[in-house]
Amino acid sequence: xxxxxxxxxxxxxxxxxxxxxxxxxxxxxxxxxxxxxxxxxxxxxxxxxxxxxxxxxxxxxxxxxxxxxxxxxxxxxxxxxxxxxxxxxxxxxxxxxxxxxxxxxxxxxxxxxxxxxxxxxxxxxxxxxxxxxxxxxxxxxxxxxxxxxxxxxxxxxxxxxxxxxxxxxxxxxxxxxxxxxxxxxxxxxxxxxxxxxxxxxxxxxxxxxxxxxxxxxxxxxxxxxxxxxxxxxxxxxxxxxxxxxxxxxxxxxxxxxx
Length: 258
Known about the structure:
Layout: E1 29-36, E2 39-53, E3 56-67, H1 69-74, E4 77-86, E5 92-101, E6 104-113, E7 118-123, E8 128-133, H2 141-148, E9 162-169, E10 172-188, E11 191-201, E12 214-219, E13 226-232, E14 237-246
Antiparallel strand pairs: 1-2, 1-14, 2-3, 3-4, 4-5, 5-6, 6-7, 7-8, 9-10, 10-11, 11-12, 12-13, 13-14
């Protein structure tokens, strides 16, 4: 169950557009209910706010994941991920990763120098600082979610076609391929929503059972919000469903169930 609460949220869509984002704005908030088999394992939330960084107006995104009930007794998860990123280019300036996953802990901050394609990682647990070279369009794990939602061609992908994005995670650039599977009308607690289905190629062995263990349903509207995520883990499987939301920038295209 390690590292899935927030990680699965990034495998949704892709964007290289330098225009002001259209899929979201400050005030957007999501809450996901995470099931481990038949057990209500926990929740994950993601919200975006306005902020100031280096005298610039930026977005401040905050993601949290936590177990509840008996799941917390057997495997405690308390994750906090944050990102400050540019409102126009979506390039990240700073990220926070403070997690506790069954005793596996990290407490880091990353500071991006976008002019020199560098990132300074301060590890407060290890009391170390290290600078890494990164690619020009690299994102952190949370900014990726927003960076991904505005790909200008996301609605034009054909079944089987993929997109690739660079993401800095665990002190390295992580490349993942996102494959478009098709479309489906998905029944949710809010009604039946038209969705696009994607399957990210992930690293097998550590957390996920196979490279194509994740399947993600996103709303086929201007919001591009995740509605359902399924994953086969090394042990068992999980499903995350959108439980509640507020502050969407665009109308949520959903047909009320009879």
